[in-house]
Write a structure and sequence with these properties.
The complex is a heterodimer of chains A (about 150) and B (about 500). Chain A is about 75% helix and about 5% strand. Chain A has about 150 residues and is mostly helical. In chain A, strands 1-2 form a two-stranded antiparallel sheet. Chain B is mostly helical. Chain B has a single domain, classed as Sodium/glucose cotransporter, CATH 1.20.1730.10. Chain B is built from 19 helices and no strands. The longest helix of chain B is centred in the middle third of the chain and has 50 residues, at about 160-210. Classes of the chains: A mainly alpha (about 150), B mainly alpha (about 500).
């Protein structure tokens, strides 16, 4: 288990803000200077940002299990990074097809689309009862809420 | 009237009429859920995961995805597909990140609308009011931009004039929205989601029948080429950044999805709603992809002449399919438009009736809210139709308000507000104010050719709103940190 407490969240939110700033910079400067490599780095920053918000959202009562950290959190970022790398490396090239698809098309569909489904969606189903929202966690939450009046 | 690519057969007309009658019937049935403000404006805690999952998909996938998307593929190759392949898996990502906390807020307070949650989290009528303005403006603008697409679709399906098409489509939608509000929208959206999925099967069959799945013909065609079949497409490369990030992370900022997170009856329903919505959306993405590439293939192989109006790409492809497939696919297109429209009508009327007036100190009694909400649905609908048809340049400017506008006002408010105790009232107010102003100013500057960013402006507005919210929150503490209402504490333990 790793702790994602209040201090860690302060850090992660600032990190996310910095990544947003870099993504805007990479889009802006990359477009003006026609620097596709900078845009590619911006894409990698997108993958990193996905991981940052995951770390905060997937934590249960401020704790994140190592299993969830690996799959889906880190693997989601990795599959996105692979997809971005493949489309960057093959952009506009006339290449042999993989399974009937251009390698860039293949990278986007297999690693971004299917890869994201296999990380975010499949893991959500597999881990829901244990790591997303176990019944006992919800019951505990309802007990605590019952102590207070409804917030207006 | 536009060129008739589809011949309205009795099968198409019959299927369309049955579809509309069933939608109206379900909408009227949903009246039993709409007796309270929570039911009428939110459908709060009322539906199972199956209904919410299908309804989420149907509301998120709009006319833009089914008609505009294939047109963009026809013109630019893969680039726009990044929007749709990011969005599908983004559903479960959104549920991972804030799903349980959004549902939890419906236990902490009485939730009928999204601004209700914002008001309680930040203890601020100003946050509620600004968010309501933003949501209302974006909903009306977005719906207005769908009016002409819907009119063209009805023209192709039924052979009626575009004006009559608008009356038939939006009139039947209003017929059940007036009775059951958001509850009706959610239930009918679930049915319409099923119709869309049936249409997807038709598209898959038609695509492989027509093309054999052969993309090499497109790559080798002189008028298309390798950039039409790679993973980046022919739009500027930086657009991939915007589409990938804004449509993956941004899907959890869409009211069509956020509002469903508290519509589930039990916390257990979040499981089915979370994965089903995304997987079903992923299936409907195939319409965007396959219909678009199907149209490219037809033109690349000389089986059809090139088209100029990009909205016709979808109809070009459908025109090459058989009678039954045409009926299934066209009904799916109609379902995509109607399901999104019903949600936004309810969203806008709720924001006006309950939140904007409430934030100004005029809280209405619940019974009165529902009555006024019904009247405002009519007003919103007429406003959208009038604006969509006669808005001219304003439509072109405001029609771009949609996904990006929603994400720029909701991500700071809900994602940051529910993940980060330190997210403060002052921070969110700053972020929201920036988002509303920038989302109006930047398209104005673009349209009047004063200044245009070299990437979609909404990336700037989303990033700016999040950065400002973060920075201001670090130095302020309104309804944050130790000043967070104690009733909110349990939410942060989930």
């Amino acid at each position: 288990m790793i702790s994602i407490g209040d201090k860690a969240r302060d850090f992660l939110m600032v990190l996310a803000a910095m990544l947003w700033a870099f993504i805007v910079y990479a889009s802006w400067e990359g477009a003006l200077s026609k620097n596709n490599q900078l845009i590619y780095f911006g894409l990698l920053a997108c993958a990193a940002m996905v991981v940052v918000y995951y770390l905060m959202g997937a934590a249960l009562n401020q704790k994140l299990s190592m299993t969830v950290l690996v799959w889906p959190v880190l693997l989601n970022g990795i599959t996105q990074a692979i997809a971005f790398t493949m489309i960057y490396m093959t952009k506009g090239e006339k290449l042999d097809f993989i399974m009937g698809m251009h390698p860039g098309f293949f990278g986007a569909m297999m690693f971004f689309w299917l890869g994201n489904f296999l990380t975010s969606t499949l893991s959500y189903v597999v881990f829901f009862d244990k790591s997303v929202l176990p019944d006992e966690t919800w019951d505990e939450f309802m007990k605590e809420v019952a102590i207070h009046q409804k917030l207006r | 009237m536009d060129e008739q690519l589809i011949q309205p057969t009795p099968l198409i007309i019959g299927y369309t009429v049955v579809f509309m009658l069933i939608s109206i019937g379900i909408g009227w049935y949903a009246n039993k859920y709409a007796k309270t403000a929570e039911g009428f404006f939110g459908g709060t805690k009322m539906f199972g995961g199956l209904v919410v999952g299908l309804a989420s998909m149907a509301a998120v996938m709009s006319a833009f995805g089914f008609i505009g998307g294939p047109g963009l593929v026809y013109k630019f190759g893969f680039t726009s597909i990044w929007m749709t392949i990011a969005c599908g898996p983004g559903f479960a990502y959104g549920y991972w990140v804030i799903g349980k906390r959004m549902r939890a807020m419906a236990e902490v307070t009485d939730v009928a609308t999204l601004p209700d949650i914002a008001r309680v989290r930040f203890q601020s009528q100003a946050v509620r009011g600004i968010l309501a303005i933003g949501l209302c403006l974006a909903a009306i603008a977005y719906l207005s931009s769908q009016v002409k697409g819907g009119a063209k679709l009805m023209n192709q399906m039924l052979g009626v004039s575009e004006e009559w098409g608008v009356v038939i489509m939006f009139g039947s939608t209003l017929a059940y929205m007036l009775v059951s509000g958001m509850s009706g929208s959610i239930l009918t959206d679930a049915f319409q989601g099923l119709v869309m999925l049936i249409g997807v099967l038709g598209v898959i069959f038609a695509f492989f029948s027509i093309t054999g799945g052969d993309f090499s013909a497109i790559m080798n065609a002189p008028n298309f080429g390798a950039s039409f079949v790679d993973g980046a497409g022919t739009m500027p490369f930086q657009l991939v950044i915007t589409f990938a990030v804004v449509f993956f992370i941004g899907v959890m900022g869409q009211p069509t999805m956020l509002a469903k997170m508290y519509a589930v009856k039990s916390h257990k329903d979040l499981k089915l709603a979370g994965w089903l919505g995304g997987v079903a959306y992923g299936a409907t993405s195939l319409v965007w992809i396959l219909v678009g590439y199907g149209a490219v293939y037809l033109v690349a192989t000389g089986a059809a002449p090139a088209i100029k109006d990009l909205d016709k790409a979808a109809f070009l492809f459908v025109s090459k399919t058989g009678g039954v497939l045409q009926a299934l696919i066209m009904a799916a297109l109609l379902a995509a438009i109607v399901s999104t429209a019903s949600f936004f009508i309810s969203l806008a009327s709720g924001a006006l009736t309950r939140d904007l007036l409430g934030s100004l100190g005029h809280e209405m009694a619940v019974d009165r809210q529902i009555v006024v909400g019904r009247y405002l649905q009519i007003v919103v609908m007429l406003l959208c139709i009038g604006f969509g048809y006669w808005g001219g340049r304003a439509v072109a400017i405001l029609g771009t308000l949609g996904w990006g506008f929603f994400a720029s006002v909701t991500l700071p408010t809900f994602m940051m507000g529910l993940l980060w105790k330190r997210c403060s009232r002052e921070g969110v107010l700053t972020g929201l104010t920036f988002a509303v102003i920038a989302n109006i100013a930047l398209p104005l500057l673009e349209n009047f050719k004063v200044y245009k960013l070299p990437y979609p402006y909404y990336l700037f507005t989303i990033a700016g709103a999040i950065i400002l919210t973060t920075v201001v929150s670090l130095f302020t503490d309104g309804s944050a940190g130790k000043n967070l209402p104690k009733e909110m504490e349990p939410v942060f333990k989930l």
